[in-house]
Amino acid sequence: MPSCSVFPVSATGNDMTPVPVHRPALPILATVNWPEGAGTPDPATAAALAAAAEKLTNGQLVAIPTETVYGLAANATDPDAVAGIFQAKGRPATNPLIVHVSDESMALTLVSQWPDIAQKAAAAFWPGPLTLVVPKADAVPDIVTAGGRTVALRCPSLKVTHQLIKLSQRPLAAPSANRSEAVSPTTAQHVLEGLGNRIGMILDNGPCEHGLESTVLDCTVNPPKILRPGPISAVQLEQALGISVYSSEPETSGAGQGSGSDTVLRSPGTQQRHYAPRTQLTLSKNAHSVITQLIQDGHRVGWLCNSPEESAVQTLAKSPEVLVIPMPKDPTAYARSLYATLHALDQRGLGRLIVDAVPSGPEWAAVRDRLNRAAT
Ligand code: AMP
Ligand code: MG
After folding, report:
1. Does pTM surpass 0.85?
2. Looking at the domain 28-253, which fold is it?
């Protein structure tokens, strides 16, 4: 879609000649695929990665797959390139970015201190879905850290992502590849829908393995603190680090603000409303009666349901006003499908989404966190 004509507006406004209006071209959508066992990528993947690395080196943005969600990447050492991320996402300048590195030695070029805890955590969980907040080096532009003195670092495990960082020979700043506050993308199609007219290239590696953002661990405090729960749990961290880890949870249904204003200041991106679909979402321990009332009030409702086998659910599901989506009973599978489900339901023109509250156990912490924020 290189350009189109509109009628009757013109630059001077005093004639009726159609004037070409330049709209941004659609991004290049390149499929990448590098199976676990394969030593080298296939030629098409290698070519796509080389093209992406060249764009990144030239200061352009590329949407990239990772094992968590799709990210919107730029050269983290180039402030102008990083500014492009904030612009494309409509992200507030106060919300710092995670910087992706190929290994610990690249991480060390970006820090002024590498705390013992960070070193241990990296040894245990990198490459993987764990982000470490550590004191930053001057080499990290202020725009990346929203002016703060710490930087968030992660070494992704997905092979294509890892290779892309190596080819770029630079750390990549990459928040989730969605407009600010919206649901993170777990497929290239989600990226295309949310940011397609704002970026030049998307690498498509299929659906993300985890489907939720990384765990963020603040290594500058003692005990280290989970700023955002994610695929690596507090229990896993405590076992690997041999010390207790501070973790707190927002109160349910948006009533509170996590561990208080301290969390907001230390990790601005953990603001309460985040990860939200366009359709109003409500978490409920009593979905059946809430939905019955909504139908009576004339709403069409999507129900992310934890027990579709119950007869009361099946009765309600017969109503044309209710779309029941059975959700996985396992927290890992639930996490993997949650954002894709929200993206799909946003396309259905429903009045409301009702989500069954998830169990209270620690293995559900990341899912609970995202649902609470989506419901705010
Ligand atoms: P996303 O934008 O989805 O990639 O999320 C990035 C998360 O990392 C947000 O919650 C940020 O607030 C958090 N983050 C990034 N940099 C820092 C930092 N220096 N200190 C604390 N949290 C950070
Ligand atoms: Mg995000």
Report:
1. yes
2. DHBP synthase (3.90.870)
